[in-house]
Amino acid sequence: MLEPRSLAATLAIAALVALGPLSTDMYLPSLPELSRVFATDSGRVQLTLSLFLAGFAIAQLIYGPLSDRYGRKPVLMGGLVLFLLATIGCALATDIDTLIAFRFLQALGGSAGPVLGRAMVRDIHGPRESGRVLSHIGSAMALAPAVAPVVGGFMLVWLGWASIFWFLAVFALLAMTVLHRLIGETAPEAHRHPRSIGRILSDFGVLLRDRQYVAYTLACTFSFAGLFVFLSVSSFVVIDYFGYAPEQYGLWFMFVVSGYLAGTLIGGRLSRSLGHFRLVRGAALLCLLGGALILVLGSGHPSHLLLVMLPMMLYMLGVGIVMPQAMAGALADYPQMAGSASGLMGFIQMTSAGLLGSLAGHLHQGTPTVMVAFIAACGLACSASAWLLLRRMS
User: Fold this and answer.
1) Residue 71: domain span
2) Is residue 255 part of a domain?
3) pTM for the full model?
């Protein structure tokens, strides 16, 4: 077993958390192709993304409390098994309805990685250090959304869309092996108690009455929602509107994700000196500025893709700081129910992002206008959550 505080253990947890980004980002270049393969419209294909997020959200309400009762490791292993089986089902799908159904099941399994990964970091590193470690994990994870669309684009061209899901199945097998052989249980025995439905709901009530928890959760939620709107619509904008090839979409996506990577590195470096409160507030303003710029430059019929991608990179810089720090801030005061706190936060985050992403996908009319308007609104909501609700506690 790896020593829990070692770099190797942190990277192993990051690999488990990366299941979520890989499952969404790697197949983004194939969305327009799926419309043609299954002879359906972009809104229906987008359901493979938005319903994935819905399943991702619902399962977190279950995994969090279960892991507080039985421990992180067995619950996480069960989620990985479901993810593996559903991913194979996606690869073998012969119509869009089957793909949507298996994507939902894939999400139910894959959500175990992110929600329990956050709780494991809180278990191991405590309230003060968890923000720094989550930022470092975010830096490592930034490689997944940066590289995944590039790899997915080339796999789509050379091997077909199903090859992307076979790749994810192999990744799941490797993750299960790492979890079984190298990662020990992190939830303290003293914190593991029987939890009835009433107790779980009571825990959720405590969290939702905590202004700090709600403020951090909403800041994280709206920053991520802007990112998810971009995930939902950007492939249609880049490939169909601007006329780039699927493999080129991945390169543009990598350009935007570089902003997220820079944000996680900045957040990790400044976490000890500035703390969650200052970092979340400052980075929320970056989301607001990026959202305002993308609305001004990207509305209507922009002449070049850079007018959309440059302000989106600035928005992503803010997201890279906000998300890890807000997660750490939300979980800081709840070591006895870190799984439940992480699960509820993930549910709110994913549900909101899924609804906004789905709405943006259905309203998309071919130009970037709908996408940039939604991203601007998310930047405004993130900033409002951080500045109107979040209060300094120390």
Assistant:
1) 9-181+197-389
2) yes
3) 0.75
